[in-house]
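Q: Please design a sequence for this.
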């Protein structure tokens, strides 16, 4: 199990991508669990499952499934947009 708190926060884009690709390798090939905390949608798009937390409670969950990373990224952005406002005001 790898615990990663904002693992790409202090990295340049090339190093960040290499780290995320290494996490992907560990997960897919060595069956490692990666528990990562991030505010960055690009970084989150490498995950298979995302829990969004707001005010200490689970706000939403996304599962990548068969989505491309680009499509998953767009879903992440959609949820992040809702995180900033009142959910009841959106519906």
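A: Design:
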């Amino acid at each position: 199990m790898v615990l990663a708190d904002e693992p790409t926060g202090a990295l340049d884009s090339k190093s960040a991508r290499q780290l995320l690709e290494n996490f992907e390798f560990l997960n897919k090939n060595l069956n490692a669990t990666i528990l990562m905390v991030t505010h960055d949608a690009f970084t989150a798009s490498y995950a298979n499952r995302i829990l969004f937390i707001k005010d200490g409670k689970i706000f939403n969950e996304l599962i990548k499934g068969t989505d491309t990373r680009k499509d998953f990224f767009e879903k992440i952005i959609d949820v992040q947009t809702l995180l900033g406002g009142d959910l009841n005001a959106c519906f």
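Q: Thanks. Anything notable?
A: The helical segments are 13-30, 41-44, 69-83, 87-90. The radius of gyration is 14 Å.
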